[in-house]
Design goal:
This protein is of the alpha/beta class and 345 residues long. It is built from 11 helices and 12 strands. The strands form 2 sheets. The chain has a 6-stranded parallel beta sheet. α1 crosses α5, α2 packs antiparallel against α6 and α6 packs across α8. The relative contact order is 0.11. The structure holds manganese (II) ion.
Length: 345
Amino acid sequence: MIKSVQELKSILERLLKDNECVIISPHINPDVDAMSSSLALYTISKSMGKDTYIVIDDESGKLDSSLINIFADLPTNINIIRPREIPTIISNKKSLLIVSDTNKASMIPIKNLAMFSDLIVIDHHDLDSNSIKGENMCVLSDVSSASEITYELLRQWGIRVIGRNSHHKADNDLFLADYLLSGIVLDTDSFRKGKVSSKTMKNVSKMLSSGASLEFVNDIFRSESTSALRVHGLVSKSDIELFNVAIALNKDDPEMIYTIVELAKAADYLIELKGMDAAFVLGYIKEGLVGISARSKGRIPVGKIMSEYGGGGNAYQAAAKVATNDIKGLKLEIEKLAIPGYKLN
Ligand SMILES: [Mn+2]
């Protein structure tokens, strides 16, 4: 177990020296913290002259809206790949996998960890029985975010971190100060909760001195709040059926395209309502493909129901993607499967 950023630096440095090719994996459906920390790790790996790639899950229909600002901002020479490209890229080279912002194998878009020569996990979430069991686990759960960990790592490495307001910027500079500050703001809900320490505030202060732009950060979360309104729209249009099962879809505009994160947020909200046994939220994630996010208190087997549609999960949280243009028909099917005793009526 790696217990400090200092220790992380020496181990990561050795792993980077030992390997030719480096794959960085944020968690599936990456958020701003996962993406920003991955970009910081990308910069470090590149500074060591390594062939470096960031792998983004392409299973999800649409990326989180808050990432749009970051992707639009990146120079075009950043190597972003899909999971299916990995075997060809690493072929028989010595390769290192760096996992960022999660410590669970089920949360990364790579099934076969054995194809890598080395693995290191950099995260700030608590460990549990589903965590990856590797020797290079850097899980600092008293730090606010993966962004804060990787910011400290960049400083230890002696890599200059700047934001768009810096007076010393050059072409093709990555504005890591902007992205990493956004990651901290996301994971601490704007310093309202999570692991905010005096060190976090010192790091934020340094980011601002390096030209981090609050305007950029605010703009990212403006798009987040537009997304929050969309989630509210889904929630307010749900039917609370018999036996306290909520089944939601946007009845006013059934064709509306949602992100998987938005469907999940709506389901999370509905299941918390008093007396609710299960919640299913349906929405198109792209044309012809409906995402379903399901939650249960345990009595209604959402994992089993979602597996009928080729999806998966457990008794409490599950999801599926269904190729269909008939979202209303799908809702009726879900009702039959989910509502106990429905068939008796
Ligand atoms: Mn995070």
